[in-house]
Amino acid sequence: MAKTPVIAIVDDDEGVRTSLASLVRSLGYEAHTYESGVDFLEQPPGDDPACMIADVQMPVITGDELQARLNASGRRFPIILMTAFPSDSVRQRVMAAGAHCYLGKPSSGDEIIRCLEEALAGHGPR
What we know:
Elements: E1 6-10, H1 14-26, E2 30-34, H2 37-41, E3 51-55, H3 63-72, E4 79-83, H4 88-96, E5 101-104, H5 109-121
């Protein structure tokens, strides 16, 4: 029996974490939420998620910093980065570092679902 994919949601905004977790669960996936990149990094690396949705602007460790630390430690899985303050320079940097999607906030549920399903299906970055 196939294991249900786990989606990690890393965002310092509780409302965003809750709504993304509800969306992820409505698609039949398991959602694990973290209020910071530090919280996520404290989890054992052998239990990596199938995909991560992370905010860019977070205290202590930003989403793109979290992505860089995961890459540096060899932890590779699709990452969807979201931000209320999109910029071309950050978009180019995170996409070059392997992000699957870079979305502005708010994003439509359909847009998030499309990115998530493409990431889980192994399709290339958007």
